[in-house]
Design the sequence.
């Protein structure tokens, strides 16, 4: 299982979701990804997308206007 | 005697985030169809951006309606970035524009064609949409619905559950994958049948976008896009261009340049992200907005732009206002200018 980082800063929703979706599609179940964002809408949209597709939000952090949303890839193929 | 196992048929549903596609999808789920949603991001979508940008909108819910609908229905949603491919639809619509720069019929043909490609790549059987005959003046008319089927290549694998009963039977109906009798015969612009069906299906919360979900249906936005093309002498755009058209006041004082003036803190912060790409300025003697300058400007033009920046600052009533100017590729400098008055700004400058 590997850990990854994805830069989705300075793009507005739904682009952070699209980038997460396309990145996660290439990963095996159990891998984790820290998605870095600046659009606060991602705090709502990425967890919603994860719930729909069976992925898990491990944590969300906010620091100096930047967000980090950590996702564990679920078993369900997309 | 054991019954033969029937194959569960699979459909992809074009999910806009509005009520109609939600109802169409639920109708298919109720018939035992496996449905997944697809949502196309063109760059002109209304939801999301403006809420993210404008501070006064921060309190509004920021949910992405397509994701929210998918979650309510319990289906997967695939969001597809079609920004680049969509340019040709906007720039060269075969069927022309609607009342603004909205190429609705070409747009629908394009999206159904992309959905058709998707079902072929993913082994799905058919496509559903929330279209209703007569609901929209351009793309949802009895005579344009077959055009979408034909030009998208989806042909009779495109099913519109909300008005299927008043259209010829499609493949899923003829093959018995779905029961035509349980589909609907909605017709026209009225919303009552949809509201009643929503109630029957137990759907009480749904988005009701005013003015549609696409900036191209907006007169003010379309006018700014037309100006952009006119100023460039060609019909092209990049994502940054169409994002900037959503933000700030746009004024074109002279044919060869325009300015974009942030209207509030959220917009100023958004425009700050473009400082390196544009000549820009802001007032330093008084609080004021960030102003981006798009085009080529000589000293006289920069002076005029600075006077406009001063006009939109809190120093608009002052004798002089000091403006810090950052020209692309040059050292910053300061200008002392007299703010323009409202009377000195012709209405035609406002885009």
Sequence:
């Amino acid at each position: 299982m590997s850990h990854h980082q994805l830069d989705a800063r300075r793009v507005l929703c739904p682009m952070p979701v699209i980038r997460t979706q396309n990145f996660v599609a290439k990963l095996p179940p159990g891998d984790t990804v820290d998605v870095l964002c600046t659009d606060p809408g991602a705090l709502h949209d990425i967890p919603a997308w994860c719930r729909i597709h069976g992925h898990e939000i491990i944590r969300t952090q906010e620091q100096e206007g930047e967000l980090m949303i950590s996702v564990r890839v679920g078993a369900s193929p997309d | 005697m054991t019954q033969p196992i029937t194959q569960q048929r699979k459909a992809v549903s074009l999910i806009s985030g509005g009520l109609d596609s939600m109802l169409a999808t639920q109708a298919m789920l109720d018939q035992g169809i496996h449905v997944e949603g697809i949502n196309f991001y063109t760059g002109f979508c209304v939801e999301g951006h403006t809420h993210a940008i404008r501070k006064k909108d921060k309190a509004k819910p920021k949910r992405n309606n397509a994701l929210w609908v998918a979650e309510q229905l319990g289906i997967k949603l695939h969001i597809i970035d079609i920004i680049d491919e969509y340019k040709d639809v906007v720039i060269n619509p075969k069927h022309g524009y609607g009342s603004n720069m909205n190429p609705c019929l070409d747009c629908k043909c394009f999206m159904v064609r992309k959905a058709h490609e998707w079902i072929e790549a993913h082994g799905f059987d058919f496509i559903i949409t929330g279209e209703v005959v007569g609901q929209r003046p351009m793309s949802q008319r009895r005579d344009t619905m077959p055009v979408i089927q034909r030009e998208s290549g989806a042909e009779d694998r495109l099913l519109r559950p909300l008005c299927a009963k008043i259209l010829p039977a499609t493949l899923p109906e003829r093959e018995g994958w779905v029961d035509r009798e349980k589909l609907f015969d909605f017709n026209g612009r009225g919303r009552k049948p949809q509201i009643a069906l929503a109630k029957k299906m137990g759907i009480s919360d749904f988005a009701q976008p005013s003015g549609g979900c696409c900036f191209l249906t907006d007169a003010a936005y379309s006018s700014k896009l037309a100006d952009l093309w006119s100023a460039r002498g060609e019909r092209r755009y990049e994502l940054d261009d169409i994002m900037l058209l959503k933000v700030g006041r746009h004024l074109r004082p002279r044919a060869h340049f325009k300015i974009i003036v942030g209207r509030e803190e959220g917009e100023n912060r958004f425009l700050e992200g473009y400082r390196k790409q544009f000549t820009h300025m802001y007032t330093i003697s008084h609080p004021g907005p960030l102003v981006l300058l798009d085009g080529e400007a000589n000293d006289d033009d920069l002076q005029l732009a600075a006077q406009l920046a001063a006009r939109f600052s809190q120093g608009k009533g002052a004798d002089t206002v000091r403006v810090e100017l950052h020209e692309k590729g040059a050292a910053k400098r300061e200008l002392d200018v007299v703010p323009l008055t409202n009377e000195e700004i012709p209405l035609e400058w406002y885009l």
Observations:
- Residues 10-215 of chain B form a domain with the Rossmann fold fold (CATH 3.40.50.620).
- Chain B has a mean pLDDT of 91.
- The interface with chain A takes residues 39, 41, 45, 48-49, 51-53, 58, 62-64, 67-68, 70-71, 75-81, 243, 273 of chain B (CB under 8 Å).
